Amino acid sequence: MSSGEWDGTRTTVGSLSIWIGTAALFAPRWIAGALGVRPDAARGDVALPLLVRLGAARNIAMGAALLATPAPQARRTTEVALLLTALDAAAVWTARAEGDVADRSAVLSGIVLAVASAGAVRWHRR
Fold first, then answer.
1. Coil vs helix vs strand at 112
2. 77-97: pLDDT as tens digits
3. Which pTM was predicted?
């Protein structure tokens, strides 16, 4: 991946992470519902907004790290982002197995993990 391709990728992914994190920070119940959390849980769980906001803060921080990381140091940033994405997917798949989230959450988590993995592999082949 050339430096120009890396700049485009990190700008896109970093910006998207910041936008999604910001939306989740200010509308945690809506984001949870949109991602497939049961409507009764999205409305009634008092801990849900805090947990979603914690994830949002992490998303914003990782997005900012991607935007600020120059190409030579990006390897570590992509490894950390991939690890966090895998942990998120595992949490969603566990919740899906217990019936706490919709199928679309498990599918979306799988897609995000696959895209993040493909990006990390592509970056590491440089």
1. helix
2. 777 878 888 888 898 889 888
3. 0.72
